[in-house]
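Late entry, written up from scratch paper. The run itself happened at the end of the previous shift, but nothing got recorded in the book at the time, so transcribing now.
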Amino acid sequence: MDHKLQRQGGAEPDGSGQDVSAVLIAGPTASGKSALALEIARELGGEIVNADSMQVYGVLDRLTARPSQDEMARVPHHLYGHITPRTAYSTGLWLNEAADAIADIRARGAVPVVVGGTGLYFRALTGGLSDMPPIPAEIREPLRTRLEREDIEPLHRELARLDPAMSERLRPADRQRIVRALEVVMTTGQSIASFQERRGPEIVDPAKARCIVLDPDRALLHARINARFERMVEEGAIAEVEQLMALDIPAQHPAMKAIGVGPISDYIRGDLSLDEAIERSRAATRQYAKRQMTWFRNQLGAEWQRLQS
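Output as recorded:
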């Protein structure tokens, strides 16, 4: 995989002369992002910043495929496992923390290497983030519960009543975006579109960064996913889910939606065999990877170099 870069202001390891202010590495789960980030960071004297919405949580070490302690000891890593699973983390919170981490890394004369699979994090990092209002729990929690229990059509009809223009822009398949639009209009009386138009500054200029998106062969990716989840179980994923269950966190909480938590919880309660829990988790991971690849294909621009992995 050709990824050679020049450290900003430093030597040219490959003679390419490419000067970068940051390296961004996106890709689906199990595509080899973390290994590539580690390799590039070691070559550049860089530091790695997490851009995966589940790897921020503590407890879920193996289940979210966080880099190992050995890997994190090789170069500095930031924003991994630092949030309690009880916290409802958000893109806005991540962007604030990532901006601080990137500024600190640059102040040390190093190159930030941002890696992860959460597309919205990269969009916020390179395009600014809308100044969305905080959503009160008394509005957020009932809507999230309804999303879990009801078909999306009633929620879509409610959005059509409160925010007709936004309901026309969103397809019924856009479940999370429909609920988010409802949260905003019910909280503020204004369309979410009015907030989306007010974007903050970009943290990383993609024109000055090296932007890489991994696009692995699907059959190879599925094989990796299947093998990896079995390793996760062997390395302690069940114990991690037991710790998470002991915290008694509501099912609609973001940390509880980490892939594998549901099936392994059912196994622990005796509702599934271990083989069934593993296979359901593998299938959910494959579906998630497919959604990630579709998002990256449709949402990331021409400045992103697509590499097979």
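The first strand starts at residue 23 and ends at 26.
(Scratch paper discarded after transcription.)
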